[in-house]
Write a structure and sequence with these properties.
Chains A, B: This is TetR/AcrR family transcriptional regulator. 2 copies of one chain form a homodimer. Chain A is an all-alpha fold. Chain A has one domain (3-196): Tetracycline Repressor, domain 2 (Orthogonal Bundle), CATH 1.10.357. Helices cover 71% and strands 0% of the residues of chain A. The longest helix of chain A is centred in the middle third of the chain and has 27 residues, at 107-133. At the A-B interface, helix 6, helix 7, helix 8 and helix 9 of A face helix 6, helix 7, helix 8 and helix 9 of B. Chain B binds a DNA duplex through helix 3.
Chain lengths: 197, 197
DNA sequence: GTCTATAAAAAGATAGAC
DNA sequence: GTCTATCTTTTTATAGAC
């Protein structure tokens, strides 16, 4: 593999594991085995390398999110996505970046993060709409809101799991969300509509 | 105010705003106005100061959480807590710390964070149990799980808001959680129980 | 308890030969 | 494109006078 690619890959891992502020040029050099000179040849600064690495992490995450776009029972897709096995203690490659002030305050570095979440939101809204249309979810639930709620459950689940150094809170949070969705599947509102007809 | 207290207060703010790794002794000195000598007189290291500051941030957060323990309609308390105005772009003083590797990997620094979330969980479970007992929530929902779900909605809501630099996703996430709880209030399960009697 | 001076180490790059 | 050497600044303290 060429040096440039190796640097990006290494930085992607370090951003996930340690974030931006706590990753030094030396960490990158030592883990990648790429020399000082090469590093600054390919990337003028740590920030430029971080940008490339961040784009890579975003790209790595989107295929997973696109599972929400599949076909078949939408509620089943939602439940499958929420309960998919994840390494909760490692956190989210993308969500993590929001806690790094040097990323958060830098519009260029924050942009890929914002884009990733915006795209995930689109997929969530679509599958939720499908679930409502299929009569699997109450029709008085707002898909745009609910999409943010379910995205937050995942992102927040990581926080809880890391705090306790135990993946159980993450799994609980997701399972609890599934419970709520199922409870909201039995549609009082739809029944009302039926009665009106 | 004495130097020691001023240092802790300043560090508390900096931990909230910038986290541990990205806060330097100089930042602390400049913002607090306390001299170098005084700082190392009161705290042998940055880590020791951070520990005191972290305990302070945890202590500042717990009174808010204890609002869940009040009296009156439990579901109303839950909704009030979820929709209370918050500065979403600033994130959570305590949850934020889970993303700092130097905190996450240090059992002593992580302990106050774990304790705070454990305590919040207790309050959440209690109010959820009350809501179920009062017939305001389906009795087939597991309070322990749901507690983690709702805590995650808040923590994850901050992540979404910071990513978009907009508090709307946070408010959406919370409002969506309230919607789901209300949908789950109309208890199919309780109705079944009624029928059995 | 506070102040100023000093300093070892790491972060974040630059220079220039090959 | 890679390598080694150099360099500035910041981090994280320590020392010792007042």
């Amino acid at each position: 593999m060429d040096s440039r690619e190796l640097l990006v890959e290494t930085m992607s891992d370090l951003l996930w594991e340690r974030g931006y502020a706590d990753t030094s040029p030396r960490d990158i050099r030592e883990r990648s085995g790429v020399g000082q000179g090469s590093m600054y040849h390919h990337f003028p600064s740590k920030r430029d390398l971080a940008l490339a690495a961040l784009e890579r992490n975003v790209a790595a995450l989107l295929p997973a999110v696109s599972d929400l776009d599949g076909r078949g029972d939408p509620l089943a897709r939602i439940e499958a996505y929420l309960t998919r096995p994840r390494d909760a203690l490692k956190g989210c490659k993308v969500g993590r970046m929001t806690q790094d002030p040097q990323v958060r305050e830098d519009p260029v570095l924050l942009a890929p993060v914002a884009r990733a979440f915006a795209q995930a939101h689109v997929s969530w809204v679509r599958v939720l709409r499908e679930a409502i249309a299929a009569g699997k979810l109450r029709d008085d639930l707002a898909p745009e809101r609910l999409a943010h709620t379910l995205m937050a459950v995942l992102q927040g689940g990581y926080v809880l799991a890391i705090a306790q150094q135990d993946s159980a809170p993450f799994e609980d949070a997701c399972a609890g969300a599934v419970d709520l969705l199922r409870a909201a599947a039995t549609s009082t509102s739809n029944l009302k509509n039926d009665r009106r007809k």
